[in-house]
Amino acid sequence: MQNIPTILISWNKNNSANNYIEWIRRMGFNYSYEAGDLLLVIGGIDIGLNPERDKHEYDLINKFKSEGKPIFGICRGMQMLGKMEGLTLHEHLPDVTLLEHRAGDNEQSKDSEFHSVKCYDENNTFQEFQVNSRHHQGFLLEKAREEWMVSIDDVVEGIKRDYFSSCQFHPERIEMKDTIAEKIIIDEINKLLKL
Description:
Layout (H helix, E strand, L loop, with lengths): L5 E4 L8 H10 L2 E3 L5 E4 L9 H17 L3 E4 L1 H9 L28 E8 L5 E8 L15 E3 L4 E5 L3 E4 L12 H13 L3
Parallel strand pairs: 1-2, 1-3, 3-4, 4-9
Antiparallel strand pairs: 5-6, 5-7, 7-8, 8-9
């Protein structure tokens, strides 16, 4: 019998991880705030607004990277990982794109925006589907089709590197349950865990 993997949730102050806990349980995994087989760097406030959280999560990322353990980032988590890879984080997407990516001022209660994303495989073919969107910061595509997922306005929606995968949208939210997007992310997490 195979052990059930444990997902380390990167942060949980003020119940910020509740959606992630339910999602991890739906996937059939355990969760922890102490140790895990995969680090899940979760969404939340902009990088730089909580130096304690920033340092804690950067330390966890570096620890998992040095130990050769997989990492998956969601929203803010993707932004942290992308910045560590040298990508340029645009602080306010409405200044550089016309598509609405932010849900609103009260991100927890406001309904998500939705838009189309192209998800590329290793053969450079893509699948197009809808994702939710709740961010105002992000990366623009810097080179011709080098990222895993890209929105129709060239905002990077997914990044893969040797030691991590990530997405800008929120697969953990109930509105994404049983969608193509959620299935792709769960498949990727399973690949990272070598399941």
